[in-house]
Amino acid sequence: MIYLRVLAASAAVLSLTMSFVSEAAANGEVNVYTYRETKLIQPLFDAFSKDTGIKVNVVSASSGLEQRMKAEGANSPADVLLTVDIGRIDEAVQAGVTQPIKSEVIDKVVPAQYRDPDGHWAGISMRARVIYASKDRVKQDKITYEELADPKWKGKICIRSGQHIYNNALFAAYAAKYGEAKAEEWLRGLKANLAQKPSGGDREAARDVAAGKCDIGIGNTYYWALMMNNDPEKKPWAEATRVILPTFEGGGTHVNLSGVLLAKNAPNKANGIKLIEWLVSEQAQQMYADQNYEYPVRSGVAVNATIAGYGKLGPDPLPIAKIAANRKAAASLVDKVGFDN
Question: Which of the ends of the chain has fewer CB neighbours closer than 10 A, N or C?
Fold first, then answer.
């Protein structure tokens, strides 16, 4: 009897899911799972719907979307996964919940450096991992990532957890460039220069620089702009600092991606590809630049004035896929050197 009840309940769930999928297909909709904050991306979806007549249904979460898609299996309503950071992008691919995006538009607009060699993901905007430097105490206007391990910065650096996906990507980039042994040596030097135990987020790094706890903090480009322009409470933290675009020696500034993936079992695949292609249109790229303070991946689209004030970005040429391949090694090195202790 219990078995029959479970079977009936499972059939009901399946029926509801299939009904949702059928309605979506019939009504010209597309279903998006996303790690982005809804308020940041809803204007994009509204503009897409206005342009195409395709309704966008959104499921937003801070974690677990890959696992949800995997559990839903062939009955998953997800068409598109919209996420941030190569870490989250790579996790989705490794979970087996994506399929190649076959699009001439994506291949033409998005540089190969910001696309998966196998086609499973594409970058739609960029952010850089940069320095929030004290206006009063830091006189130099150029810093290399390698230099962060120089003893001259001892007790002067603030940073969030080394295991956070943003730092993991930076550390993975270092390992991809120089190998694990040199990456370990660098991480030990960076750890020795920390003013305090890694904690908080990128905004708090600026806060602690403003408070005099450290001279430089490490954060993403858009946080500083958000504090300066959109958050009166935190604006003093931005005003006490300035952004320096660091580079690798002989290279460029480390960048990461907001990325898009096509779901393996997308019930509205055609509409999913339309959305993906629209997200790299000039209109969408300008919205990413001006509303989210991110760098466009499409050439010819103007960078927001605040972001442009940091100086001209010269992205490091290291392919993002190579950074993804070194994520596990970077995470292991963080634990090995006791970075967060």
Answer: N
pLDDT of res. 162: 97
For residues 99 and 133, give the distance between their C-alpha atoms in angstroms, rounded to a whole number.
42
Asked if 271 contacts 54 with a C-beta cutoff of 8 angstroms, the reply is yes
Sign of the torsion angle spanned by Cα atoms 70, 76, 269, 37:
negative
d(CA 152, CA 190): 11
Q: Would you give the end-to-end CA distance of the chain in angstroms?
A: 54
Q: How far is CA 246 from the centre of its chain?
A: 18
All residues at 6 or more sequence positions from 297 whose CB lies less than 8 Å from its CB, including other chains:
109, 110, 111, 114, 123, 124, 125, 126, 257, 280, 285
**Residue 282's closest CA among 115, 109, 112?**
109
Nearest Cα neighbor of 87 from 179, 169, 20 is 169
pLDDT digit string (tens) for 238-274?
Answer: 999 999 999 999 999 999 999 999 999 999 999 999 9
Count of all residues that appear for the chain in the document = 341
Q: Which two tokens stand for residue 202?
A: 């990128």
Per CATH, 2-126+257-303 and 128-254+314-336 having the same topology is answered yes
Residue pair 124/258 in contact (Cβ under 8 Å)? The answer is yes
Q: What architecture is the 2-126+257-303 domain classified under in CATH?
A: 3-Layer(aba) Sandwich (3.40)
pTM of the shown model: 0.88
Is pLDDT of 19 > 80?
no
For the stretch 285-333, pLDDT in tens is 999 999 999 999 999 999 999 999 999 999 999 999 999 999 999 999 9
Q: How many helices (H) and strands (E) does the chain have?
A: 15, 10
